[in-house]
Amino acid sequence: MGAPFVPVVQLNKKERMTSLVIQNPNDFVHILRMQNTNINGKQKAPFALRIIKGLGRRFTILVMKIAQIDLNKRAGELTEADVEKISDIIAKPKEYGIPMWFLNRQRCLKDGSNSQLISNMIDTRLREDLERMKKARQHRGLRHYLGVKVRGQKTKSSGRTGKTLGVTKKK
């Protein structure tokens, strides 16, 4: 009558089978190295670049469009010229016309500049900002120093890590 019934098998994330047809297997790189980060070459390029800390989905898609690289291209299929172009756009986004509101560090308190921070630069700037707030004895800096909630949340019943809860029993 019709096609035979084939049961659908649910696979876990670890068990998923992925088949990848590569046009030029000799040119394919399985693990790509960019900005001190290992990138999975099997993923599509804009989503593989998200592994780099500080790059999100929208920013990577914008970078790929500016570099005029196909969004469906796998990260392992990128040529050295493509990788250099992407790295250059990430390093100097303002020169390639990326708007200021798209960057992740706007109006830096030190020099007032707008920039896109990536990988360990994010951690360094965060640490510097917290040290500056602690040194200036700002409320936010003191809250960070004490290890309590910073952004105005309630602390009566939540955020009690490390302390005992409840009432002690009489003997």
List keywords for this structure.
171 residues, Helicase, Ruva Protein, domain 3, 5 helices, 2 strands, 29% helix
Describe this structure in words.
The chain is mainly α and 171 residues long. The chain has a domain of 70 residues: Helicase, Ruva Protein, domain 3, CATH 1.10.8.50. It is built from 5 helices and 2 strands; from the N terminus they run ββααααα. The protein has a two-stranded antiparallel sheet with strand order 1-2. β1 and β2 form a beta hairpin. α4 packs across α5. The longest helix is centred in the last third of the chain and has 16 residues. The termini are far apart.
Give a quick precis of the structure.
It contains 5 helices and 2 strands; from the N terminus they run E-E-H-H-H-H-H.
